[in-house]
Fold:
Amino acid sequence: MPLPTHPRESYTVGIICALDVEKAAVEATLDEEHGGVGKMAGDDNSYNFGRIGQHDVVVACLPAGMMGKASAAMVAKDMMRSFPIKAGFMVGIGGGVWSDKADVRLGDVVVSQPDGMHGGVVQWDFGKMEERGFRRTGTLNKPPRPLLNAVQSLKATHRRKGSAVHQYLTDMMKNNPYMKDEYTSPGREHDELFEASCNHPSGATCAQCDRSRLNQERPRRIDDKPQIHYGNIASGDEVMKDVATRDRIAREEGILCFEMEAAGLMDSFPCVVIRPICDYADSHKNKQWQPYAAATAACYCKELSGVVDRQGIVELELASHHIEFSLKDIPVTDYFVPRPLEMAQLEAFLNCPQEKSRRRVYLVHGLGGMGKTQLCVEYVRTHHDNFTAVLWLDGSSRDALRQSLASAAQRLPVDQGMVPPQPHLQAHDIDESIDKLWRWLSKKENTGWPLIFDNVDRDWQTGKGDAQAYNPTEFFPSADHGAVSITSRLTRLQGPQSSLHLRQADQELGKSNLETRARKGLPDADRLVQRLGGLPLALVQAGAYLQQTGMTVDEYLGWYASTWENLMKNQNLFPLHEYGERGVLTTWRMSYEQVCAVKPEAARLLDQWAFLHPGDIWYDIAEACCTASAQSSIPYDETSTAPDKLSFWDSLHILAQYSLISATGSSNNFAIHPVVHDWSLHNITDQATKGQLSATAIWAIADCVPQSGSTGLYLQALRGYEEDEEDEEDEETWELKHILTLDTVNNLANLYADQGKMKEAEGMYLRALTGYVEALGPKHTSTLRTVNNLGLLYAHQGKMKEAEEMYLRALTGYEEALGPKHTSTLNTVHNLGLLYAHQGKMKDAEDMFLRALRGKEEAWVPKHTSTLETVNNLAVLYYAQGKMQEAEEMYLRALRGFEEARGPKHTSTLSTVNNLAALYYAQGKMHEAEQMYLRALTGMEEALGPKHTSTLDTVYNLGIFYSDQGRMQEAEEMCARALQGYRNVEGDHEADIEYLQGQLETLQAARQTSSQHLQSESRNPRAEISSDVVAQNDRTARMRDFVLRVLMQP
Structure:
């Protein structure tokens, strides 16, 4: 006889099981089985249909082998798409937590019920790691009111009459005799709860477990009937088998049992969770009790369904708030290159199931063309199954957003009272549609949606009359749930912990972007990625152009340098679908115009910046530019007066607010992206203005850098060569001039470094390095010289990792270009030795110094000063390693050499004298040590002055020496002198000052009380590593101040 069939609309109650053993038990409790009903396309669930009491129910099970909340959420989502589900049950086994307060036994049933701050289900593994430990955050929805009313009613019935679960179990076995052997209770004698400290040894059963370790605290039960417990159920992605973790979470959150699916259901599938206990969530977990436990849960579900008011279910809103995901109006691309770190941040914020009780707003901001939109597109394409509805909105203008919202409203289900789709909407229709959409999104149970506001780039806060600008919060639903993501160039929208500043792609990611769009590997891709600054828009446009035209990277770079604007216009002939009409030539125009409206001075600053390096700009140079402009015969405009500092910083921050520049390192350092820098130059169309800005830039640089020594020559060369490049048409001559300009930039960087302007020096070095690589290639000696100089700069700044990378790059290049014994190669080897010594890599340092020494002895002579510097440094290294004899030999060799080559009073000689004194001190040769210290001190005072740090270091050493000798008066004088000196000089001397203060107090106390002979705490004197030869010949002088001071341990 065929099974009766019911219409799809009658199935308003859904039951979801995790395992087949659970689904079989549920099917066995049906009062009536029904035939199959059609489901929606794309629904992969397998269903059974029937009736329990008054309710037509649809039953589904998770796919085989696919446990957990994500799988449960997918099953529920498809069920709600195919049927008008209004309420449901999650029926399946769990691991119980026995305690004095809750006598939970195997075969008992735990039912989710709001308790404390939770709605009945707690996601135990979701939260934040804080200073005091892990803190669970957020709450999941509680079951709908008709189900909670039914639970309360059934609890009252049980108090009077007891539970019908036992009778339903009997009926199940009678009506389904095939189930009896598997689903009958194993018996209370097999309900074993072991002590917390008793771990399961191995095997599928507990046959080998120590029965003497069974819990003896549980009272005996008078019968075998399953009992029902109500409260919080813990849900997580992992099977709970650790007793300590189980008990801690149960104690903290009031947990009765653990399972793995409910957390994926509560916010989208309104249900009661029914979990029978088949184990105790410990290492003794096995499957012996699973069938019987599944049967008890199914029988409780039947009993509860019998008291659920059918009218209450009918009056509930539809549980489904699902809208099919659609790519319509979403700017998709088939060329997306993954950005895993940025995607992880976006996922961490938006994939937050426990935060759905509050509205979450997340901003993805950054320079136009950084890939903000494409990152969000990829997110919704990857994760739309996690949400009931994904609404992508065009936020480029007020009108575009309103139309986009109205279109979204037309996609809502007609049975929600929404208007059917209409091809053209009038203004009042748009208002009505938006209002209905907000009401739908604001429904209390409709929490699983994100809104994506894309391209919110118009600034509504300027008050400059842009009718299409708007505050995005005007268009947020009023309800305190759901998620909102905004892509924008407006940094002011960002929240303290809810924003992602999307920056340029790194070299690897940029190369992938470029080659993916070019549809082929590009031998010189790295050069182009570097020139385009890792900007995704510029890279994908260039890649598409290379693919369409067959142009090589070299040819592209040539055209980029010579005819930038024409190249950009040609690229626009091959538009990118995902970027619409925007390209490098046009994408920043709107931001620039908004800056002009807000503060014209900020726009002028950006114009001037086009003729300066794209790195950091500082107030003095901006002031100098304005002064030069005001004094010139072709004034930029009548308001070009020097700004005060407050106005200057305000201009910088306005440019940053529109993402035309970005902060680097700290909030008061800014840089402009190289492609925006190129665009800014070509954005100035008036040639007279261009000439004026170029001239003021050169004048300002000359004014800001002191005109002493060779500085003026470098600046004159820089000005002359850059002007020659503007006028020179012969390609061969232009390349020569270009390289000479790069040499000037490199030398100017040297001067900045000499003056302590490390940030400016780094910018100049990087500018020179980029130019050398483009003009001469990465292995040319000029390129390698700048690489080495960058290594020196980074070492001086304490950026040891970056310094090592630069040194190794320079070394590899020099060895290949000049050979392993060339002096440039040996200088870089020497630099690596210094770096390794400061990193504590003594063996590596020794290998480098020995290699440098052997090479220098062969290339020069044993007594060459460069050779002697390496001898001195090798001696310091031996001293640090406790190789005293080798250290003494090297010191004496260095001393004799320096005395002969430079004289007895040269600082190199005196540094070696000081180092030799420290060695004698460590060897206990006190007389020799004192003589050397006094010689070093006298010489340092004469050569460098009494307040120089090298002089103070020797004073410091003498103070320690006299203290150890018990010569308190002299020790006190030296320590006081060193202390006062360190306080008045620049540098990191905090540890020295603290030590000397303590030493002085001890010496003074000892002198005042005439106490016993004072023994100074063990503190070794200083040895100085010489670094006179760390640079190329043209870099020697500027690094003399870079003295590496090493405190050796005894």
User: Anything to note?
Assistant: Residues 414-421, 632-641, 706-737, 1010-1050 have pLDDT under 50 and may be disordered.
